[in-house]
Write the structure tokens for this entry.
Amino acid sequence: MAVSGSLPAGGAASPAPPAARPGSLRRHERLPTLIATLLVAAPLLLFIVYPLAFILGRSFSTPEGLGFDNYATMLSTARFTRILYNSFEVTLVSTGIAVALAYAFAYAVQRTAMPGKNLFRIIALVPLFAPSLVQAQGLVLLFGRNGLINRSFGTGIEIYGYWGIVISMVLYVFPYAFLILSAALAVADSRLYESAKMLGAGPWRTFRTVTLPSTKYGLAASIFVCFTLVITDFGNPMVIGANYNVLATEVYNQVIGQANFERGTVIGMVLLVPAAVAAILEKYISRRQYSLVSDQSRPLVIVPNRRRDLAFAGLSAGIAAAILSIVAVVVYASFVHLWPYRMTFSLRHYAFDVQNGIQPLWNSIYISLMAAGIGVLAVTASSYVIEKFKSAVTRPLYFLSILPAAVPGMVLGLGYILAFNDPANPVYLIYGTLLIIAIVNVYYYHAQGFLIASTSMKQISGTFDEASATLGGTRLQTLRKVTLPLIAPTLIGVAVFFFMRSMVTLSAVIFLITPQTQVAAVSVLLLEDRGATNQAAAFSVCIMATVIAALLLVRLGLRVAGVKGVSLIR
Amino acid sequence: MSLRIREVVKRFGSLTALDHVSLDIEAGEFVCFLGPSGCGKTTLLRIVAGLEQADGGAVELDGRDLIEVPARLRNFGVVFQSYSLFPNMTAARNIAYGLECRRWPKDRIAARVAEMLRIVELAEHSHKYPAQLSGGQQQRIALARALAPDPSLLLLDEPLSALDAKVREDLRLEIRALQQRLGITTIMVTHDQEEALTMADRIVVMRNGRIEQVGSARELYQAPASRFVAEFIGRMNVLPVEAADGGLGLAGRPIEIAIPAGGAQGTPTVLGLRPEELRLHPGAKGNGGQGPNRLPARVVQSVFLGNVTHLVLELDEAGGAPPLVAELHGGAAVGLEPGAMLQVELPAAALRVLEWR
């Protein structure tokens, strides 16, 4: 899902040699294959499948043994039906709006000659740098009871509830949709557009018959990605939802509020189904995205068109303003004395005289650094083994690697409590430490990291391995001297990906933190919940500053090292 | 080193890529596997290299069975069609790669790399990365890399097919000269008959997973064992004939052939004649059969190619016989424009039987 979506090296001149059939391995290849497969399979089974099995089991456990009682009880309550309906209502509406806006914005960036494209592109990605509940936080500061608008103009705008959730969700998922659609719109075959023009098609007809069909897979993929993100997000509805409950907040309420793990797991399982279906459809569809452009395609040359460019610039400016105003008001709130009563400049919220002080931010940074390191190691190993050690279990291993894309973060986190909060389990040794939080982040984001690494691994022609083998190189020599140096730039991108997501995520970590291992994003949520608006804002700003500083640092490092063409934001 | 391929079988699912292929290659020989795509030539090379595992049969190097020896321990040099130079290493480091894998001492590696660069005449490009080299230069570095560890066999997988025509021609001769100088046993896979004819000591023509014929370029051209070989090596006029009056007939006229000695294999059904072997008699029009195997024909098309001209001829009374192609040298085709009538002679000595019944 890189902005600079490079094409897989498909359609090469010679047909790829057919893959070795499982079971036909030479004797001397069997043992290394077995060892490599086990090394990769073991952590995937331990940190993904095992917790999920626990949560599944717990959802069926009743005082009278295993059964459907928990589900039956839950499904028959009017409250649950209401929540289920709410979730889908919010999710479908937010997804529709977000994808439509992102399509227009991506179209403006990729297909028009409007000014300031690079700036717009960066602004669109800003929400990725912020904790995942910053949208609701900003909306409350702008339109809430004590918000800027209502206080300044005496209006009675009621932002809490349905519309608050929808707006914050649209802004939250916008960058994800933009990244996918921008990549889809970036590739175009000018021959099709010239043909359409020669045949007398107007701009609208050309859009309907050429542009839209050629981006339909990107469009579908972005819809499914947004759907999953919205239905599983709980930070924004927690802050702005008021009495409008959704599935994700209900899991939290049941587990944290009422300590009812059975109910929590049942709702988690209910949440898992639509998320999994959407994730599977997205994977199925995204496989077809690239075949539309052949190597004979010629890139589209964009001809300026004053009216069109101005219209799109206007629209893009509107969206950019909305994104920036959220961030701006949070930054502003972090620097005023006491929102909304004493709006004078103050640095006192950066003293962090709250419980634990600044420690959660450091925790977040440690966790994110660990997640970056472990994440790169994990996804490199799994993509390497899946690419290079073909065996009967290659497909199941691939499935395991992308399985987390279908699992809501809260469900995975809940699974970790159930599975590992048990002194009999060896993982209990790290339970309650920063390490387990880093690990849950690694496996929650495993699918995306893995796909980035494995795409890059696939682009390295298999003939390099063959060339190395015929020159006398062992697998390890090939890995060290050829494969790793070639994918190193991508791995830096993967590290940044894990770092960024771990800095801003709430959902997987929310059940695993202890007072000692609290992370910054959770601090924002708890402070916001307590009404400590200013401190919450200050924490958000610190998270954003950390992420941006890390990005700039890596960028600088890459420039010094002379490495080009690495997409860091995914 | 001599190589023996015995009864090698390879299947991909229901497709039999190699069907009991056997072949002996002498030490120092340059052998070409030639055939259309899908004939199994690349698969056979990959099995020899150890990059693919045979489902049956054996590959022996100087009597030693290689089946359980992995590619990296075979000590064969392989040059791939796609160059496949490591893009993260300079030309010199690419050449050194095989030597580093064999843990040669540093000074020996440096000396060997310099020597190889000198042999392929790219010494001044040693510090360039593959992306900074032309296709021809990359392939020469690939050749140097394959030869640096002093392999016992050199395997070339369509090494020239990605290059421009001119570069290709130069490199053909260069590779051949190098091979002869080093005396290294070499197998090259190609689908380009000209490449095979110019480079190989022996050519192995393959089709549908089997060896169709093995022989020198001259043998294959002059005595093709089958219609397939005849049409694949050079150009061949294919003449379906029928039995007539105890002899053979083409387009209703009797045709004489010189039956090869001991060739009592039945009745010939298809004859072949090389385009340069047709004789034209422009003066003689009409039906006058002055001499055997002379048929009235009409020029349909004349293709001027510089030193040669191809004339497409239609037999006058041909009942569905395919048009013939005659190849004329120099100015011999002057005045033979489309529409011209003439007599074409099919010399009995040059006619060969491609199919029997």
